[in-house]
Amino acid sequence: MEIVTPFHPPAVLSVDGIGFTYKNGREVFRNFSLTVKKREFVALLGPSGCGKSTMLNLLSGFLKPTAGRVCINGQPVFPEMQALGYVFQTPNLFPWLSVEDNVCFGLKMAGKNAVEQREKARHYLSLVGLEAVARDLPHQLSGGMRQRVALARTLALEPDILLMDEPFAALDAITRIQMNEELLRLWSELSQTIIFITHDIDEAVFLADRVVVLGLPPNGIDSEILIDLPRPRDRHKVRSTARFADYGDQLMHRIGAITQLRQSASLNHSGARQNAGP
């Protein structure tokens, strides 16, 4: 009888036993490990102060761990890796450049010639539905449109992995939902790996294959939930299901427990200081 070994996609990103402590002595992570597979969509969720943004800076190589290592496709990570793309909460567009020129800028820095810059810029602006405003300046666009330009600028570099730090947090609720759907459409078409930081539970459930909940520093991962919802995901159908609500309840319970632990720890610390006296 032939034994068939199940196929497991290789990890495109691996975090192996990292620790990180800021120079002021604040320890954020201790022996933290995480693997993300090719084409996986992983949301990092947690209350403020749990280390989400610090983790993103470690994953990108902007910060170096004090122990362990972070690797992309088996290689130690560094910020200029071609495999990495970044999308932040603010679009950070050049106000004096047109939409198309903003997208071209990253391609120019990557050494692409003028013809390739224009071709790629127009292609990715078309993907995000902004080809009609290619010659406009950023101030002429809505907040959601500016964030689409930032997304097109990153996608034009064709990275394997997108690191997204609360990219839609500054948008109004309706635009944010629209950008969630737009991101899923692009991810389905381009098949990149995405690590998406958010504090919004519904957003995490709607977008991700897996939600990783970060606990109190330096404990790292509190819990993980696999999101078994069909794709493609339609916001009207998915968000009205009992399963969507159940995932949200599970995550809300974990975030609530972490917040309660923090409050208890803070009260204990305050009490200890008072008992110690002057």
From TrEMBL:
Upper taxonomic lineage: Bacteria, Pseudomonadati, Pseudomonadota, Alphaproteobacteria, Hyphomicrobiales
InterPro entries, alphabetized: AAA+_ATPase, ABC_transporter-like_ATP-bd, ABC_transporter-like_CS, ABC_transporter_ATP-bind, P-loop_NTPase
Keyword ATP-binding: yes
Keywords: ATP-binding, Nucleotide-binding, Transport
Family under the similarity heading: Belongs to the ABC transporter superfamily.
Coiled-coil spans in chain: none
UniProt-recorded Gene Ontology molecular function terms: ATP binding; ATP hydrolysis activity
Chain ranges of the ABC transporter domain: 13-241
UniProt cross-references to Gene3D superfamilies, sorted A to Z: P-loop containing nucleotide triphosphate hydrolases
Originating species: Rhizobium pisi
Protein name in the entry: ABC transporter ATP-binding protein
